Amino acid sequence: MNNIRGKTLAIAIIISLVIGAGGMYVFINGFDQEVGDDKQPVLAETVDTKEEMDAATKLLNAMELITERYVNEVDEKVLLEGAIKGMVGALEDPYSVYMDEEAASQFMESLESHFEGIGAEVSMTNGQVTIVSPIRDSPAEKAGLMPKDRIVEIDGESIEGLTLYDAVLKIRGEKGTSVSLTIERPSSSELIEISVVRDVIPHETVRAKTIEHKGKNVGVLEITSFSNDTAERFERELLALEEQGIAGLIIDVRGNPGGLLNVAEEIGKLVIPSGKPIVQIENREGEKVRYISSLEEAKDYPIIGLIDRGSASASEIIAGALKEAGDYDLVGETTFGKGTVQQALKLGDGSEIKLTLFKWLTSDGNFINEVGVEPTVEVSQPEFFYLPPLYVKEVLSYDMLNEQVRSAQLMLKGLGFEPGRTDGYFSKQTEQAVTAFQNTKNIEATGVIDEKTASAIHEAISEVVRDDKTDRQLQTAIELIIKQSNS
After folding, report:
1. Which of 38, 144, 155, 307 shows its CA 20 to 30 Å from the CA of 171?
2. Which CATH architecture has domain 206-342+356-382?
3. What three-state secondary structure class fits 8?
């Protein structure tokens, strides 16, 4: 018993100090960034206050009672893991999580150049595993997952009671394998089943292109996430665009779930005028550190940010900095609203606690958590942009009424086939629209939507969604660039 008491007391002290004082020793290196060995919290070996001793003793007593008197033999390691998960869970913070050794390894892997999975950022919100944002062009996005989707089942099994990282381990897997996710979507009255084929998720975090419009070249830099080398890539691509002679720049952070804070800061320094704040970091005592741009001269061309509901975290830092610099528009939709900073703190055995340590504030000191950054020019995409793929468990035909029929009607309308109505009732005109679509795809013209027709509709609408010409937000930004460059 004494051996158990001594070992458990040491564990209790360490837990107490990591939870209570971890942020006191952590440097601000960035969102979701592992802390180096030279920046680890200092774990004292003695308890300094009566309150800390009482807390450690209480935890010790509970562990000892369960270990020695529970009806079945219990593994102390299992109890310890449960105690840590319980403490982190009590914070009711969707971004603070405990990761065992395997989960911690996979978390760090996700910051590297590539990993295997579905390509979506998730959080635990109100006890539910929630999609923050699918990565652009990832299997998750192509399958139709959207920000705010809540996962209720994985491969037909309820995930109620699972931790975030237990759920993530079930979702991730080897390239080529598939996972079935049952989704609860705020805009849908029915559960949606989405099958996703896992793939290698590359972190090609910056994509550059020019779009010619009205005789001028508009540069577009799309940032898909803020990873280790993103700022370097952004600077290289920006210089290449400037050498081509651009009339203006569009920075596209739509669907970008965020990443490293220091990377957002470095990118901000490349576009925000000198002397303007990029972001402010606030600790638990209310003390703030402001990060100021060192760009020597403001760019001599207009800059516009593209944002949507999937822009989160570091994306919102860039969006907020552009908006509050005073000279730049934001086009799109209000962003996700994640205004906190996490760091992964090691516990010595390969496991980690990813803990919220700071708030971040916009240049003007606004806290956007659960609020988001509003666009200066609000533009929504056509409704069919937000629809999940059609998964036909039963053939959709005349006189049926359900959400799948409604999705099919909206897609057909987006493809130029008029279904007559978009309320989910399969009317005669909907039947005619399906027949017309089938004729264009050399599919037997039955007027019903079977698996082959559903797949063809999804493939056709995906091409429309990927077409820059049907991207209302991008086209609006381009028009603004041309107008501002002429003024």
Report:
1. 307
2. Alpha-Beta Complex (3.90)
3. helix
